[in-house]
Amino acid sequence: MSTTARPREPRVSVVIPARNEARNLEIVLPMLPPVHEVILVDGNSVDDTVATARRVLPSIRVVQQTRKGKGNALACGFEAVTGDVVVMFDADCSADAAEIPRFVDALVAGADVAKGSRYAPGGGSDDITVVRSLGNKGLNLISNLLLGAAYTDLCYGYNAFWADTLPTVGLLPSTLPQPDDGSMRWGDGFEIETILTCRWSAAGFAITEVPSHEKLRVHGVSNLNAVSDGIRVLTSILHERRRAREVADRARLALVAGRVGAGPVAVLDEEAA
């Protein structure tokens, strides 16, 4: 999909959203392979997350997220990327740093997106419960039916992609303020992985699933709520299907308008409001 040549030896940017993950970062950061940059996105931690990260990995870049939620943290990190390839990496020790070259290899081999999968042959999980597994499989089935796809692990957050795909994805900009009522903007939560996958798919990017083994969180507890976040994911699938249709309709209208000599048609994303 890229209109420019991509390097055979890309500069890799690892983006790590973290909130109160100091103890886990002591374990995770030394295990990362040599990369172009590591970007820690701090979610207003009240422990020594930032100080620990800088002590363990002095070269780390730290940015502060501007709203709340994992989706916003990732968006802030993506905006700070200077490399060719972006790797989404969790701070809780669940992601295996040794797998990063596997993701990069898939991109160099021709994929636009390397999507981690715990259910692909060679993948697995030490952490997922029976309830979460059933929920994931159900959401996978629904998304594949609605999107005409064949993903095996829709909600997994370990992914890598070429940075030049980001403008097409169109995530909410970090400059948008937190709503006055304190609510979370759509796309700022754990539904971010689903939104990214849906938009990569709608854009026609080549997506390759990469087997990945999810490990146990070492310290602390997850902020993920299987029920409420599952509902957000399901809502995201329906929303993204509708959004893809609207974008396609606008493109067709713009094409018709151009043929009859009309001016450009404005394409607005209601989420940016």
TrEMBL record:
Pfam families: Glycos_transf_2
Glycosyltransferase 2-like domain sequence ranges: 13-133
Signal peptide location: none
CDD domains the UniProt entry points to: DPM_DPG-synthase_like
InterPro entries for this protein: Glyco_trans_2-like, Glycosyltransferase_2, Nucleotide-diphossugar_trans
UniProt similarity note: Belongs to the glycosyltransferase 2 family.
Protein name: Glycosyltransferase family 2 protein
Organism expressing this protein natively: Curtobacterium subtropicum
